Structure formats: C-alpha cells, structure tokens
UniProtKB/TrEMBL annotation:
Gene Ontology BP annotations: secondary metabolic process
Assembly and oligomerization: Monomer.
Top-level EC class: lyase
Family note: Belongs to the metallo-dependent hydrolases superfamily. ACMSD family.
One GO CC term, this protein: cytosol
Keywords from the named record: Decarboxylase, Hydrolase, Lyase, Metal-binding, Zinc
Organism, as annotated: Sphingomonas cavernae
Protein name per its UniProtKB record: 2-amino-3-carboxymuconate-6-semialdehyde decarboxylase
Domain Amidohydrolase-related: residue ranges: 5-331
EC assignment: 4.1.1.45
Gene Ontology MF: a single term: aminocarboxymuconate-semialdehyde decarboxylase activity
Protein's pathway: Secondary metabolite metabolism; quinolate metabolism
Keyword Hydrolase in record: yes
Amino acid sequence: MTFAVDIHSHFLPEKWPDLAERFGTPDWPWMKQLGGGKAMLMLGDKEFRPVLNDCWDGARRIEAMDAHGIDVQVMSATPLLFAYGRPPEQAAEVARLFNSAAREICAHDPKRLKSLCQVPLQDTDRACAELDRAMTEGHIGVQIGNHVDDRNLDDAGIITFLHHCADVGAAVLVHPWDMMAQQRMPRYMMSWLVGMPAETQLSILSLILSGAFEKLPRNLRICFAHGGGSFAFLLGRVDNAWRHRDIVRVDCPNPPSSYTDRFYVDSAVFNEDALAMLVKVMGEDRVVLGSDYPFPLGEQIVGQMIREDQAISPSLRAKLMGTNAARLFNLNGTGPTSPETL
C-alpha cells in the first residue's frame, strides 16, 4: 500500500487548567466532558463544538489511522486555542501548555504521531522563542493562523517570524481562523464554507502581491490548509488583474501564478475535479494529503478520494499520499520514507 502522511489533523487535550481562573478574564476555551468518550468544547459559557475522544486519545488515533491506511499523522491545535487576542505573555503560557499536551498525545507512538506547535504570533520575539523551545521538545513545525487581528501574513512582524522558521528548519501550516464578516454568516456554517476559503486566499495573496515571497528565503516550507481555499480556482482572475492594473503589480514583480512553487496546499477539497484542477495549478509536487481529522467537515475515510480516483496515476498518487509530505516536513530527510524508519 502507498505510504501515507496526513498533514492536517487536529487535537484537543482531554482537559486543561481553568484559564479564566488563571488569568482572571472570561471567555477562555475549556472542555466539558460528557462521558462515554464525548465532550463539548466550550468558549466561556457558550458551546463551540461537540468532540469525541479521537481528539485526545493517542490509541484511538492510531486505531483510526490503521483503519484508513495512514502511516503518519501530523497533529495541530484547534485554532480556537491560539489566544492571539490575549496579552502576549498569556498567549505564550497557553502555547506552552497546549504544545506540551500535543507531545503527550504523540508519546503514544512517536514514530507515527507528529505534532506542530502553536506560538503567540501577536508578539514576534515571544513567537520565535516558543518555536525554538517547542522544536527542542519534539515538534516538527508550527501551525499559525492566517492573520492576527487586522495584520495579514505580509505584516513585518509575521514576515520576521516566517524568516525565523526557515532559519531553524520549521515547516509552517497556515490555518484560517476568526473568519471575516461573521455577522453576515450566522447560520449554516457559512463562516466555515465561505469565510474560511476566502481567508486562505487572502493569506496567500498577501504573501504574493506584497512581494513578501521576494524577501523570504526559498527554503521556507509553508503549506496552506483546505486546498489553499479559493486561491487556485481564482488565480486566473488574479493574473488578469496583475497584467492590466498597475496597482495590483506595484509590489509584485512577477505574475502571481509564478509563485506556486513557493508553497504547498493540502488536498482537502472533497471533489475529484477540484483536486485535478488543484494539482494542475500547483503542480504535482506541491499538493499533500490533508484530512481535517477528526472533525465532521474533514474527509471521513482519510485518503479515500486520492486512492480511488482512477484518473490519478500511481506515481502521482504516491506523491499526493506521502512523498510530498515527507519533503514538506523533512521526515527522515527528503523524499519517501517508511514508518519503520521515522
């Protein structure tokens, strides 16, 4: 069977200290355990999301991986835990708390369970320091949100952090969060269905059109979740604007489509035609398997679409399932590897 790495999965600890009590401010996330392997993720006194013990039980995660034919799973925190809107010293303490919790889950099978840390991205110095600490703890990279308040990824402080990631060899997963225009999308999970893809496209274009990719080193390994959102499917519109409007290309010396070799996207688009277009736009080496496990909006049988799509050649399937991810996260060096050698 093709070696498989799922680069986009989430975790939640089974429990953690009362952050509202710790910091003396309301509306912190916490876990309400319901029994029977079920829980409710709370935000203050409001229900945020029902979850199962897949989130925190390493044995359960391995069981699901075996059932789905996944060799390695890369975990990252649920973005609700970022704490970007809190004082930096509190966000740094929260990051250490959840980063250590991730390593505890991975300890169940460290060859197959890998983790990305979180950092207090609102404070560049603290973010770099926590990244350095977390990498020594065993994390293989970092997950960041696609913005901090109104600061997009082209913000000078965030660019400095991304440069530091490249310097220390930390891969970066960018995940959308705190979606725009939520007051206009209060129902039907529209913030997830419309806001998330738009947020991800905004973050990619922020790096391209601002000229940030011209400043960042080419060894930066950065990936965008959910297939890069709406980026690939609207790239023709962006290129057209770049060609015909000088205000679009003022800081971007090359066509936007020429930067697709600077980043990766995951495969979480849930449609064979969409995946085919994504591969055509990004190239065969820049798409990696990502499921959004264990949440309901994720792929329910991880890797099923790639495995069963008869239009995908065996060589491309190997790249999408694992080879590209091994390169992105430097799993045992570069190129494909096997779970026995990780």
